[in-house]
Structures are given as structure tokens and as C-alpha cells.
Design goal:
Elements lengths: L11 E3 L1 H13 L3 E8 L2 E6 L10 E6 L2 E6 L16 H4 L3 E10 L2 E7 L7 E6 L1 H15 L6 H8 L2 E5 L10 H4 L11 E8 L2 E8 L2 H8 L4 E2 L2 H17 L9 H7 L5 H6 L7 H5 L6 E7 L5 E8 L9 E2 L2 E2 L4 H20 L9 H4 L7 H8 L5 E3 L2 E3 L1
Parallel strand pairs: 2-8, 8-9, 9-10
Antiparallel strand pairs: 1-11, 1-12, 2-3, 4-5, 6-7, 6-14, 10-11, 13-14, 15-16, 17-18
Helix pairs in contact: 8-11
Length: 387
């Protein structure tokens, strides 16, 4: 190497070969590398064995209720916006066995407690809004009196490789939430992809000591000013692409005052209560606990599974559900995400990733609903005004 990594934040030049070496280095350290790959007509997060598994030359087209995979004119590896998955499925998995027990004499014996050893994930391709979402999940699941042990084990073992956004979709509104498109911290390694004609190059930097240790294994040279300028320009273009807006000043108070607003009935007429938005959301954390047993009652298991406030049974208490209508369930979700979350955790629960917009089959759009409830304030989308 031409320079040392004694100073974190030094930016280095890299190429696709460097990324291949990075993946191999992480694997040698015992990490299961998870990153973007093409499957089932989408770019999803899954195990990545080599750089050939990455979505070279692919991008996505996203809009309310719409997702399409498209080919690019270059071989960019990270030239898409966001996967339908979020990283929470690896850190806060959809289902976890809390314990398993079997009958023994007049009592029972616990055979397994918890979900076993935590997997060591290296998450490759984490965007700025997703880093913000992980920070929010840390606050919810680690930052209070009661810590989620499953999340804690997985989070402590996770290595984060961030990727700066170089493009945005029509569903993105991270600039309104202050969460992107530029990553400013929370990563072990960050990389920026710069495309110049048929040439694809990268700028890499370490954000932690363990990130620096990984980069020290690679034959890197400090990035020349021209490469850094190209990378910076690519991120600035992505910021300029974000046209969707959400006015956040005074939003908490506006939502609390809008409990009986007529807009809740209008959106309920469209909402299917399918829970797609909460499943795709990178910060929603609600879960339920289910007990199961075999037919003879000799073996029992307790499972924790993702749940959603859009499901009628979610608010069930003795005597029935307290949110029977779609109106009340949508209101609960939106008000909790953008208002009550601030009271509970000190910040909004939305990072502006736009997944709830893209993956709503009815095309319900959160910034439009907020603008309507606020009584005339507007959101601008690609030059158009939503009232």
C-alpha cells in the first residue's frame, strides 16, 4: 500500500477486483456476506459468494405500487435504489424460536433456549436511509430498559459495508427526513460507485478500526482528486433526483390534532390492510408470540413472529379488538410512525426510504397522506404538486 490506514476516513481507489477481494476477506473472517443479487424479477438481499453474484448492469424502476427490474447501459454493481427487502430481516428476523421444551415425568425440560449462535453477517450495500433505520432499531431494541437478546447478538456480530446512493427513485424522500442520500457514519466500510461511460470505479473508506483492518489487507492506493470528485458528483446527482417531499416541521402536533380528520376515511377506502407497508418498512418492529405443541403434548415450542398493526388481531384484548376498522388501523400506523415514535424514542420512525410507497398494492403514498391531513400543505413529486 502507498499509505497507511492509521487515519480513518482516508479515501482509496478501488475497482471490481477490489470488491472481489473484499468479499473474500470478509469470508475468511467468518462472515456470511449478504448483499444485492437478482432473483425472482427483483434485486433482493441474499447470500453473496462472489462479486459475480452482484447485480451488474441492473437497475430498478420504482413508483407508487410499482416495481420493475431494468437493464442499465453500463456494468454498475450498485446502480439501483433499494431492495424490497430491508436489512431488519437479518438483524430482527421474521421468526425466532424462543425456546423448545419436552415433557419429562411430571414436569418439563427446556431443550433449547433462544435461536442458537448468532450468525456473523457482513451486510454489503447498505444505503444511507438503511443505516439510519438500523440506528433506529438499535434505539428501540437495545436502548431501553429491556434489551432484545436476539437482536443484540446479531447486531454485535454484524459488519456493515455502506454504499453511497448515486441515483434515486420516485419513491424516495430521504432528504426530507435528513437520512440521505449521503452516508455520514455508522458503517465499517463505505464505498461510492462512479460510472464514466463504460468504466466503473469506486472510492472506499473505513469508518471503524475493524473496517480499517479489512482494508489493510487490500492493495489500495489513495484515490486521486479526479476520482473523488467523480464520486462526490454522483452522490450530489442522487440528491438532486429526490423530488418527493414531506414537510416535517410541526408534523407531530398536526397528526395529534387530526384524530377525526376525514382523510382517514378516504385512505381506509383504498387500504387493503395487507400489512405490506409494515413488512417492507426497515424500522417497524412489532411482533407476536405463538406457542405450539405436538399432537400428544410432549414437545412444545414458543416462537416470536413479525406482526403488524394493520392486522385486526394485533390490537385484540379481552373482549375483542380495539381497532376494528381500517380507518383506525391506518391512523394508528401513520400517527405512531411520525408522531408517537418521537415521544417514545426521540425521533421519527420514518427514514424516507419509500418502500411503503412502492410496495403498497393500492398505491397509497405516505407523503400525500401527510400533506392532505395537514390541510393544504403540499408535497412536490417530480415537479407536480400533491395537495
Amino acid at each position: 500500500m502507498d499509505t497507511t490506514l492509521s487515519s480513518l476516513g482516508t479515501r482509496f481507489a478501488a475497482d471490481a477486483g477490489t470488491l472481489a477481494e473484499l468479499i473474500s476477506s470478509l469470508q475468511r473472517r467468518g462472515y456470511q456476506v449478504v448483499g444485492p443479487t437478482v432473483r425472482d424479477g427483483a434485486i433482493v438481499y441474499d447470500t453473496v459468494e462472489s462479486v459475480e453474484d452482484l447485480p451488474a448492469g441492473w437497475t430498478d424502476e420504482q413508483a407508487p405500487g410499482r416495481y420493475r427490474l431494468k437493464q442499465r447501459s453500463d456494468r454498475a454493481l450498485f446502480g439501483y435504489t433499494l431492495s424490497p427487502h430491508s436489512w431488519k430481516r437479518f438483524l430482527h428476523p421474521p421468526q425466532v424460536r424462543l425456546f423448545k421444551a419436552e415433557r419429562e415425568g411430571g414436569g418439563f425440560r427446556v431443550l433449547e433456549n433462544g435461536d442458537g449462535a448468532a450468525p456473523r453477517y457482513a451486510l454489503l450495500g447498505v444505503r444511507a436511509c438503511e443505516l439510519a433505520a438500523i440506528t433506529l432499531q438499535d434505539r428501540v431494541l437495545l436502548g431501553d430498559r429491556y434489551v432484545d437478546p436476539t437482536y443484540k447478538r446479531r447486531r454485535e456480530e454484524t459488519f456493515l459495508v455502506a454504499v453511497q446512493c448515486t441515483q434515486a427513485s420516485s419513491s424516495c424522500f430521504c432528504t426530507s427526513m435528513g437520512t440521505g442520500p449521503r452516508t455520514t457514519g455508522g458503517f465499517d466500510i463505505s464505498l461510492t460507485e462512479a460510472v464514466d461511460g463504460d468504466s466503473v470505479a469506486y472510492v472506499m473508506e473505513a469508518g471503524t478500526e475493524r473496517g480499517a483492518e479489512v482494508l489493510e489487507e487490500l492493495d489500495l492506493k489513495e484515490a486521486p482528486p479526479k476520482r473523488i470528485k467523480q464520486a462526490e458528483a454522483a452522490v450530489q446527482r442522487a440528491a438532486a433526483m429526490v423530488k418527493r417531499r414531506m414537510e416535517t416541521d410541526g408534523l407531530r402536533e398536526s397528526l395529534y390534532q387530526a384524530f377525526e380528520h376525514s382523510r382517514w376515511d378516504e385512505v381506509a377506502a383504498r387500504c387493503l390492510s395487507c400489512a405490506n407497508c409494515t413488512m417492507a418498512c426497515p424500522t417497524c418492529f412489532c411482533s407476536t408470540v405463538e406457542d405450539t405443541s405436538d399432537v400428544e403434548g410432549n414437545v412444545a415450542e414458543r416462537w416470536r413472529r413479525w406482526d403488524s398493526c394493520f392486522v385486526q388481531s394485533f390490537s385484540y384484548i379481552h373482549g375483542g379488538s380495539i381497532r376494528m376498522s381500517g380507518r383506525s388501523r391506518y391512523r394508528q400506523w401513520l400517527t405512531h410512525k411520525l408522531a408517537a415514535w418521537i415521544d417514545q424514542f426521540g425521533t421519527s420512525g420514518c427514514v424516507g426510504c419509500g418502500r411503503c410507497i412502492t410496495w403498497c398494492p393500492a398505491g397509497i403514498e405516505i407523503t400525500e397522506e401527510v400533506a392532505a391531513i395537514r390541510g393544504g400543505k403540499t408535497a412536490v413529486v417530480q415537479g407536480e404538486t400533491i395537495r
